[in-house]
Specification:
- By secondary structure, the chain is α+β, with helices and mostly antiparallel strands.
- It contains two helices and three strands.
- A three-stranded mixed beta sheet has the order 1-2-3.
- Helix 1 packs across helix 2 (about 65-75).
- Bound molecules: zinc ion (ZN).
- The site of zinc ion has 7 residues, from loops.
């Protein structure tokens, strides 16, 4: 990956290590998304918690379409 690419900022609030481990592949995929309209990556994501196998995430993106793509990757149940 080019170092010139802006990278997605990731904040994980609780049970950090376990969540980070489980989400690592998904967050990497989300970080590689680019908005079709604006050509931008996801700016940031905050993972607030994990309940019954679902992650509660908040995204900072250029638009709704990109946010939905990113959320869909991370929100799959595990
Ligand atoms: Zn966009």
């Amino acid at each position: 990956m080019s170092t010139l690419e802006p990278t997605m900022r990731i904040t994980i609030d609780e049970r950090g290590l376990l969540i980070r481990e489980r989400l690592r592949d998904r967050l990497e995929r989300a970080a590689q998304l680019r908005c079709e309209e604006h050509g931008k990556p996801v700016a940031a994501v905050v993972i607030n918690g994990w309940e019954n196998g679902w992650f509660d995430s908040r995204w900072t993106t250029c638009c709704e379409a990109l946010e939905q793509q990113a959320a869909a990757i991370v929100k799959q149940r595990c």
